[in-house]
Amino acid sequence: MKHTILTLAALGAAATLTACGQKAAEKTAEAPAAAPPPAMAAAPTAKTDAMGDMPAMSDQAGEKMGKGVGKVTAVDATAGRITLDHEAIPEVGWPAMTMAFKADAALLKGVKVGDQVAFDVKVKDGAGEVTAITRQ
Q1: Domain identity same for 88 and 122
Q2: Is residue 67 situated within a structural domain?
Q3: For a surface tag, which of 11, 14, 30, 127 has the fewest beta carbons within 10 Å of its beta carbon?
Q4: DSSP per position, 7-66
Q5: Which DSSP letter does residue 2 get?
Q6: Beta strand pairing status for 63-76 and 116-124?
Q7: Domains in the chain, number
Q8: Which backbone phi and psi does 18 adopt, to 5 degrees?
Q9: Mean pLDDT over each residue of the chain, to the nearest integer
Q10: What burial class does residue 131 get, using C-beta atoms within 10 Å of its C-beta: 0-12 exposed, 13-18 middle, 19+ buried?
Q11: Domain containing residue 53
Q12: What percent of the chain has pLDDT over 90?
């Protein structure tokens, strides 16, 4: 019974995705070939407060390194945390957003709220840690 339900759910999902793909293809055929759809042009620079645009945590298994730039919105050296409103970090598959990172307290000395910074981030199992940070 469980197998039957899962099979039907998978078939329903496949049919829905196929229908969406056909609608997207029809819209693409109607649009001028020279200009990309507005959503595609705005996506790389759009910021989000939700992490819904991030890849699933299972997609982030293992360790990845990336470089980012952003603005410091909070610093808690005692807890070893820094919150950054950062641009997209393509190396780790993250869109632009505001989020807290783990960071060694020594790295946080001299960094304050409002500073524009460049930083290196290590991502392991979906969690980010700032490994280097410089004020700009």
Answers
A1: yes
A2: yes
A3: 30
A4: HHHHHHHHHHHHHHHHHHHHHHHHS-SSS--HHHHHTTT-EESSSTTSPPGGGG-SEEEE
A5: H
A6: antiparallel
A7: 2
A8: -65, -45
A9: 74
A10: middle
A11: 47-135
A12: 51
- The residues near 58 (Cβ < 8 Å, ≥ 6 apart) are none
Same domain, 29 and 66: no
Within a domain: 115: yes
Q: pTM value?
A: 0.56
Which pLDDT score is estimated for 68?
97
Chain-centroid distance of CA 130 in Å reads 15
Do 92 and 130 belong together in one domain?
A: yes
Take residue 57 and report the two structure tokens written for it. Answer: 């945590």
Mean pLDDT score, 84-92: 96
17 and 74 assigned to the same domain: no
Q: Calculate mean pLDDT across residues 87-91.
A: 96
Cβ neighbours, 10 Å, residue 1: 5
Same domain, 60 and 126: yes
User: Which CATH number do you get for residue 86?
Assistant: 2.40.50.320
Cα separation, 107 vs 130, whole angstroms:
8
H/E stretch holding 131 reads strand 127-135
